[in-house]
Design goal:
The chain has 354 residues and is α/β, with parallel strands linked by helices. It has 2 domains: 116 residues, no CATH class; 165 residues, Nucleotidyltransferase, domain 5. Strands 1, 2, 3, 4, 5 and 6 form a 6-stranded mixed sheet that branches. It starts with 6 loop residues before the first helix and ends in a 15-residue tail after the last helix.
């Protein structure tokens, strides 16, 4: 057909994408995907064991690195499983990123869903975040100049439950009527919780992060339901912190935390004024300096929730955690692609199995 792209047409189109600054091309150039092979091999092994399938019959499976890139796309653009398949077939930048041509086979939505489940079951995203943190240290991006702790609500589809049903769920039980209707129970998220913030009600989960001040990488992350107070994970977040400065910037909600900081840490919190005891000019100046540093964490959340559009589509804590931690990993590698300088790493011509 006259309107079919030839090899030269396709090469020219890719060249045009590159000139426009394809962010996926840049990401693929600076990330050495081979660094994650051990984790990907573990995920693949556990996936085969779970399926109790050791046969090599049937269609050849997609390479582990290919599927990692596919899941990166899912999180980077907050796509549904169906949309991942569609966009892989439709967008040249997606095809180039995962290493498939116009005539190549792309993973269908069920394949993407299966890999998402494997990453969930094996805790792969947590492992990938820790591994990439080591890669950052080797590349000269050690945690420096102190840390920032913060948390943000990740909304999930709201449940229209009765007050009695909500009380039963909070007690750790399943409403009796739901147990009688399995199809209804499958559509109910009994792990997410309601919380009120600044007079507004939210339903879902909460992302807690430890961000280094200098480079704005998420060095540690935890996921809870939305009702868990930020201060309840304060000490857990900072445990094992490798920052060269043992200083933590936090808001006043973390003060008097039961999960306290180690004594070796300096805690930096904005001071509050009270009736008959307003802040002095010096305290106000100090607060502005502190706020200027704490604002750096908002850049992190701005990318995760704004650019990436993080939102929970799934049901239950396990899948919510996989979605959120996957987004944290993708944020970190995207941040690295923004910061890294020097020669580009040669791109693989096609995705290799791992």
């Amino acid at each position: 057909m006259d309107n079919q792209l030839s090899f030269f047409d396709l090469t020219d189109r890719y060249s045009q994408l590159s000139k426009k600054g394809d962010p996926l091309e840049r990401l693929d150039e600076v990330i050495d995907w081979k660094e994650f092979d051990d984790i990907l091999a573990y995920v693949k092994k556990k996936g085969r064991e779970a399926r109790e399938c050791h046969s090599n019959a049937g269609r050849k499976s997609f390479g582990s690195r290919t599927m990692l890139k596919v899941l990166v796309l899912k999180h980077l653009y907050n796509l549904s499983f169906e949309q991942v398949e569609y966009q892989l077939k439709d967008r040249l930048s997606f095809m180039r990123f995962v290493g498939v041509g116009l005539n190549g086979t792309v993973p269908d939505e069920n394949t993407v869903r299966n890999y998402f489940e494997q990453y969930k079951e094996t805790g792969a995203w947590d492992k990938l975040i820790r591994t990439f943190d080591k890669i950052l240290e080797k590349a000269g991006y050690k945690a420096q100049e102190g840390s920032i702790v913060d948390a943000s609500i990740v909304e999930a589809p709201r449940q229209r439950n009765t007050p009695e049903e909500n009380r039963t769920i909070k007690e750790g039980n399943i409403p009796e009527e739901w147990e009688k209707v399995p199809n209804k129970l499958r559509q109910k998220d009994t792990d997410a919780r309601w919380v009120q913030k600044r007079g507004q009600n939210y339903f879902g989960y909460k992302l807690h992060t430890l961000v280094d001040v200098k480079h704005k990488f998420v060095r540690k992350a935890m996921v809870t339901d939305a009702s868990v107070h930020d201060s309840n994970v304060y000490g857990k977040l900072t445990k094992g912190d490798k920052n060269d400065v043992k200083r933590v910037h936090a808001d006043s909600g973390y003060l008097n935390s039961k999960d306290a900081l180690p004594q070796t840490y300096e805690e930096v919190v904005c001071e509050k004024g009270y009736r008959n005891h307003p802040l002095t000019d010096e305290q106000k100046r100090n607060n502005r300096k502190k706020s200027h540093i704490r604002a750096r964490v908002e850049h992190v959340y701005g990318f995760i929730f704004g650019s990436m559009g993080l939102f929970i589509r799934t049901i239950g804590m396990a899948r919510a955690k996989a979605t959120i931690m996957g987004s944290v990993f993708v944020y970190n590698i995207s941040r690295f692609a923004t910061l890294v300088k020097g020669p580009k790493r040669p791109r693989e011509k096609c995705a290799q199995p791992a």
